[in-house]
Amino acid sequence: MISELNKETWSNLTSKLDRLPHALLLHGAPGLGKLALAERFSQLLLCEKRGHGKQPCGACESCRWFLAGSHPDARLVEPEAVALALGRPSTVVEEGEEEKKEKKNPSVQIRIEQTRGLANFLNMASSRGGRRIAIVHPAEDMNTATANSLLKGLEEPPAGAFFILVSHRPASLLPTIRSRCVPVPVPLPERKAAAAWLVAQ
Fold first, then answer.
1. What distance in Å separates the CA atoms of residue 185 and residue 26, rounded to the nearest whole number?
2. Within 10 A of 74 (CB to CB), how many other CB atoms are there?
3. What is the pLDDT along the chain (201 residues), one digit of tens a residue?
4. Which of 25, 146, 163, 168 could anchor a disulfide with 142, C-beta 3.0 to 4.6 Å?
5. Do residues 6 and 190 make contact, with C-beta atoms less than 8 angstroms apart?
């Protein structure tokens, strides 16, 4: 469920359902739950029983796949180091045995192989007949070549493709990437609300 601290942003997101752009940029300070918002919104978009509701049903086959991290029409792209820290499998596809031998530490950046793989994923037909969703987190963790690779998809998105970029430092993104996304700020909560939430935890 969405935290009480993020209800305003959730309302902002769900208000876009009828006129959804092809890319959103969720941005704000670290620790505000931006990735959780991106994942919940993706689940809502893929939910097969939501109708006109503002929450995913949590019970349909699509929701169950999404919650298990195995939905065929959703892809999370993040640095290997972030995936490992959060206990998730890496989305990097290794080129061959030599590359495996040379690689010592998990990458702290999103690698170009990941954005190229994302392009392949987005150009495939949807498994469930709906959207194909890509979450990029944190979006600023790309070098210039990787960012330009992602930009190609943002400039000419395949039909049914939807991007959610999650960023702690949106100013560090390429201006061309920012210009192709609708920004959705995730504000700091009021002190009183944050204190009440912490007490409840």
1. 6
2. 22
3. 556 678 889 999 998 888 999 999 999 999 899 999 999 999 999 999 976 678 999 999 999 999 999 999 999 999 999 999 888 877 665 555 445 545 568 999 999 999 999 999 999 999 988 899 999 999 999 999 999 999 999 999 999 999 999 999 999 999 999 999 999 999 987 777 667 767 877
4. 146
5. no
Is the Cα dihedral 71, 75, 76, 80 positive or negative?
A: positive
Task: Tell me the average pLDDT of the chain.
Answer: 88
CA-to-CA separations, 160 to 90, 115, 133, 190, in angstroms, rounded: 25, 17, 8, 37
Q: Tokens standing for 125?
A: 């037909």
Amino acid found at 11: S
CB atoms within 10 A of CB 174: 17
**CA–CA distance, 68 with 62 (Å, rounded to integer):** 10
69 and 46 in contact (C-beta within 8 Å)?
no
Give the phi and the psi of residue 140 in degrees, each rounded to 5.
Answer: -75, -10
Cis peptide before 138 (omega within 30 of 0): yes
